[in-house]
């Protein structure tokens, strides 16, 4: 971010021009945006370079007007993220927050009620900071059973409605069954899947960020 010279330190002859330049410079700074991604290995470019991950591809697409802070950590849970969120908000001062969490909780069959509370805390903290918030729907393997899946996956639209935040579609929704898109562990997307993940979520994400599609 550019350093601004105070007009009070300049001579009276150049003071009016300096005030105009300061106003323009301040407007340019105000036009910049910062997106904070709070997530797990699905956004942490698991087992590949971060430059290959969908979050980095998003940053490249958004361009110089945006700073994308990818605070995703492999293995992250909603409880861990809720603990980290206040420090992340203070350190990065985002105007937009994207929450992509819950997969690790679900794979451990943790209580959907607890996941709900943790995500609600992250949403509330983010909104209190002044940021716009979006929550991504998370889908789990069918092996966890229909009852658990219904309770777990249903908490996302409930949270979004109650807290009045955007609900984005799961970015693996249409590519999970495509050949070469998922690693041998059956969970993590491959490097080849990363551009498709961005395309999957881009229509709703661009609307949330209010950028052209």
From TrEMBL:
Matches recorded under InterPro entries: Ester_Hydrolysis_Enzymes, SGNH_hydro, SGNH_hydro_sf
CDD domains for this protein: Lysophospholipase_L1_like
Residues in SGNH hydrolase-type esterase domain copies: 38-193
Recorded GO MF terms: phosphatidylcholine lysophospholipase activity
A Pfam family matched in the record: Lipase_GDSL_2
PANTHER family per the UniProt record, alphabetical: THIOESTERASE 1/PROTEASE 1/LYSOPHOSPHOLIPASE L1, THIOESTERASE 1_PROTEASE 1_LYSOPHOSPHOLIPASE L1
Protein name: GDSL family lipase
